[in-house]
Amino acid sequence: MSKLKWGILSTANIGVKRVIPAIIAGQRGVVAAIASRDSERAARIATRFGIARSYGNYQALLDDPEIEAIYNPLPNHLHVHWTVKALEAGKHVLCEKPIALNAAQAQAIVTARDASGMRVIEAFMLRFHPQWHRLRELVQAGRIGAVRAIQSAFVFSVLDPNNVRNRADIGGGALYDVGCYPIVTARYLFGSEPERAVALVDRDPKLGVDRVTSGLLAFPGGGQLAFVSALQLAPYQRVVILGSAGHIDVAVPFTPQKEHRCRLVIDSGKSLDGSSAVFEDFAPADQFALQCDAAAAVFRNETQQEFPIEDAIANMRAIDALYRSAISGHWETP
Questions:
Q1: Between the CA of residue 76 and those of 33, 230, 293, what are the distances in Å?
Q2: What domains can you pick out in the chain, each with its CATH number?
Q3: Is 97 a catalytic residue?
Q4: How far is the C-alpha of 118 from the C-alpha of 295, rounded, in Å?
């Protein structure tokens, strides 16, 4: 079977450093073209990766008849516009998270998807990593009893004022960039949508973006997510799932390097010194390559799409509620 022909919409770092190498390393795709507003940069990246064609504008890539799917890693404020244009051009789309700046804006993607018959996937690569498949399996099987609480942290430091994460006018900020991960994973594990949300936000006085955002989400049946996301703290990430009969620690839940092994620590809690813990280890895995191969299977109609665009909009509703809460000072309903 022929490989899916991808077009890369921009020369953003995540595409160059993660996704293009992942498609090349995967089994199901080939990068056939890349576009940038800087034609010389597009040509350099194409030469570097052996990509057949490069374009000096985004529309030219969408007009390429050989391209079957577009990867969209543009800044957040451009996700909806160029995803819609790609769908209208008859291309499937893998779009970076968050899918939009708010849930209402994202509805345009639903309309374009339905009109075009094409598929759209939000690029939460962690949902394709074996450690998360196993984690959900353990929770659903009751390995740690009834799960009532999840604690998550995803923080790092980026101080360059020109970095897209530090530009409030184009959708920067901690909650959009990394806070979305605790939210999507809690929804993944609880298998339901939050009923209310409350947030505490600290904004950088010069840049205007939320540099530290903490949140609480209440799920049906008493489930709770407590998380912190940040752009100006020393790098750290962790997920702890707390159940009535134990807990599970995920040391590197969101961005494990493809060369590194992953480990789940499953502990009954019978001993606070950790001696009651057992471990499940996972061989190194490239979650970006797994994501791109899975997307290719969906785009070729070989498998059902587990997380349609409606799932991305549900995640946006939770983010919207947290931002509203930061202003109102009260619980908000997604």
A1: 22, 17, 24
A2: 4-123 (3.40.50.720), 126-285+316-328 (3.30.360.10)
A3: yes
A4: 12
Residues 6+ apart with CB under 8 A from 221: 192
Give the pLDDT confidence score for residue 274 in this predicted structure: 86
Catalytic residue, from 5, 85, 97, 258: name it.
Answer: 97
Q: How confident is the model at residue 333 (pLDDT cuts 50, 70, 90)?
A: very high
Q: Is 293 helix (H, G, I), strand (E, B) or coil?
A: helix
Strand-pairing partners, residue 5, are: 30
Predicted local distance difference test score (pLDDT) of residue 203:
98
Angle at 209 between CA 205 and CA 211, to 5 degrees: 85
Residue 308: per-residue pLDDT: 95
* Residues 177-209 as b or e (16 or more Cβ within 10 Å = b): bbbbbbbbbbbbbbeeebebbbbebebbeebeb
Return the pLDDT at 287: 98
Instruction: Tell me the β-bridge partners of 120.
Output: 93
Residues 183-237 pLDDT 10s: 999 999 999 999 999 999 999 999 999 999 999 999 999 999 999 999 999 999 9
List 157's β-bridge partners, or say none: 232
CA angle in degrees (0–180, nearest 5) for 24-261-13: 40
What secondary structure, in 3-state letters, does 174-226 show? HHHHHHHHHHHHHHHHHCCCCCEEEEEEEECCCCCCEEEEEEEEECHHHCEEE
